[in-house]
Amino acid sequence: MPKKTLQIETGGFYEAAEENGLKFERSVYNTTLLRYGLLHNFELRLGWNFEKQGVKNNGDNGARIGDALNGLYPLLFGMKIAIAEEKNGFPEVALIGHLFLPFTASKDFRPETTGADFRLSLSHTLSEKSSIGYNLGAQWGDDNPEIAYIYTLAYGYGITDRLGFFVEVYGDFPEDSKANHLWDAGLTYLLRPNIQLDVSGGTSFTAGQDVLLSAGISFRIPN
């Protein structure tokens, strides 16, 4: 993030999965992430989600089972540090880390312990119109002592000066549970030099997510 520049990324998504006659749904209405360039190689990150989770019985006219959970997820507070620029075939490298603060969450989503994640982020320019990025790291939270190793592999292509396409594969490897592997693909549109729209959809290779639909907007101040 350029120094003294604020970027606001917000939007929402919906995901659902069916298992044993039950439908698990999650709707996130606000995925706001604030990114501020404090130094030329250091940015602060602050994010907060408002969401709703529920379970329905597919065999009973979609009747809801129990009360839906809704409210604010723990606030995300973190940073991104640029380590190296892309040069002579070596990728651009950055380190990203976050804490998830329990006292900032609503009752339905408030854990007893602080969560965290960190990842090494790398990216390569393939051509004037395409690039590839990949992340490797780990995360833990929601009062679960089990650490999960995480990854992301993403490819982006500029169809025109304003319209872009991307596809990504991502997932995690919990220490004592089955791995989760997912994918999504979508489009970005540069509405103005400092405003970008995006839409995407996806699903999982493994059990756990049948559909994912997402839309968002990001803009920078100043442009």
Can you describe what's shown?
It is a single chain. By secondary structure, the protein is mainly β. It has one domain: monomeric porin ompg (Porin, Beta Barrel), CATH 2.40.160.40. It is built from no helices and 14 strands. 9% of the residues are buried.
Topology, number of strands: 14
Poorly predicted residue ranges: none
Total domain units? 1
- Lateral arrangement of strands in the main beta sheet: 1-2-3-6-7-8-9-10-11-12-13-14
Helix content, binned percent? under 10%
Provide a short characterization of the protein structure.
This protein is mainly beta. The protein has strands spanning 6-19, 22-39, 42-57, 63-64, 69-72, 75-84, 92-101, 115-125, 130-141, 144-158, 163-174, 180-192, 195-204, 211-221.
What keywords describe this structure?
223 residues; mainly beta; twelve-stranded antiparallel β-barrel; Porin; globular
SSE layout:
Layout (H helix, E strand, L loop, with lengths): L5 E14 L2 E18 L2 E16 L5 E2 L4 E4 L2 E10 L7 E10 L13 E11 L4 E12 L2 E15 L4 E12 L5 E13 L2 E10 L6 E11 L2
Antiparallel strand pairs: 1-2, 1-14, 2-3, 3-4, 3-5, 3-6, 6-7, 7-8, 8-9, 9-10, 10-11, 11-12, 12-13, 13-14
